[in-house]
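User: Please predict the structure of the protein below. I'd like the answer in structure-token form so I can feed it into my own downstream comparison script.

Assistant: Understood. Taking the following sequence of 572 residues as input:
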Amino acid sequence: MKIRATAAIMECLLEQEVDTVFGYPGGTILNVYDELYRYKDRIHHVLTAHEQGAAHAADGYARSTGKVGVCFATSGPGATNLTTGIATAYLDSSPVVFLTCNVTEATLGKDAFQEVDITGIAMPITKATFLVRDASTIPAVMRQAFAVAASGRPGPVLIDFLKDVTFPSVEIEYEFVPWRENRGCAGMRELNRDHELKKPTPSREDVDILLDMIAAAERPFVICGGGVVLGRADKEFKEFAERLDAPVAISLMGGGGFSGSHPLTTGMIGMHGSKASNTACGECDLLIAVGCRFSDRVALNPATFARQAKIVQIDIDRAEIDKNVLTDHHIIGSARRVLAMLNEKLPQYDHSDWKAHILPLRAPSVAEASDHLTPQQVLETIRVQMPENAIVATDVGQHQMWAIKYLHFQYPGQMLTSGGFGTMGFGLGAAIGAQTAHPDKRVFHITGDGCFRMNCHELATVGYYKLPIITVVFNNGTLGMVRQWQSLIYGGRYSETTLDRGPDFVKLAQAYGIRGFRVETAADMETALSQALGSLEPAVIDCRLDIDEMVRPMVASGSEITDFLLSEGGES
């Protein structure tokens, strides 16, 4: 049948079972928004305060559900405002499809009002970009974009439509094809060849080699990486770890892939890794990294990383193998499939002596008494009071590290954070996306006073849609992580990191119609959080912390992983 080209865009979204989009309208995308008005009973649109917030919201929606997120924006500054969000999704392999519109064919390349080459700008930070100049290609392009975003190693895709193809007078031939059936449609076979839509099949021989390496090991150690979370391979990973009976470290992006309260868990690894994790890495004879790319925050010095061990990397993306750390063996495939193949033949091991050496190195989790409010007291209060299925979105910095350390995430999609790009301002948008996707869950936004300033205007979105997000601000009056480096490495020269200025976060919350709390003691925190949780309304809790609180432990970049600049207990 023939339908409007803009209707085909909406129908293609419905093909992909999209029920929610995040965005911000503008001139060139008005025809698409006009069509969206006709579909408002089937596609819910969340209007954010800024395009970057929409990008992070679509990302948070994707991470918390495992589905593809969708974001709309107009041309020019609307499109470029997406780029930080696109890069954030790209570095963390989050599947989001971004739809933008550009100027007309006649004005393209002539510096027209709000014209920008967004496909060129986005090319290095997406899996693919498409410029749609022919309306008849809309169904094929839309189907391809979603397939690329969700397949293999997930990631963002951008489609830019010229305004001509969205004119109400433009009609195209269209047939509704559910996404599970459209792989045989026009353009999809060629796409499969170019983008490897099918997950790589792990080699049985490679799996058997690893089984032999495990049998020969006396001190095995496992890293749970982001690939376990993305692949929803938590059940397979848990079975593998328990059969192997080995200590397990969790990378920043691996939070929720393996329970943070499991008896085998040693905590984070790397720059802010625990003594147990970093010691195990330095002393193990076999290191198995599942869905972990050995970033510079994990493998601080690749030349000395796990120097006593044979290193095995399991990853869906062949490009990650030997990119940062040279391996002794690798297996290409999804974490879920590789782990399932390993578990088929893996016997039950007993590494009691090795565990007895490593696991006691874990720091106690009980918050110590203090005459002032501490980060651990704040997070212990959250851990005790929050529902088990609550979702936590963080920004980037000290609060992020403290949250990973003290909160025990139990399932994939429970912890949302910007690990690769380190985007300040990510958290509130991500929380909006997660809360929209999960109206039956409580969502916590954990942030710092520096990060919160970046995108606090999204409180307008939270307030308007009455999203019961609880924002907890770790307010220490400084850019805490940067100040920590200045204290330890730059001789206490605090160049432009002190935030001795507004706003008053309680009054800011109230300006958006949101309840605000200010807490200065552990008792204040318990009371404020109890009241916030007792209400199905949003809240902002301003936690006043000491300016010199530090993330412990810490290893300097480029150092041996066990060479702690700051120890767990506080000695330096």
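That's the full token string. The chain has 22 helices and 22 strands.
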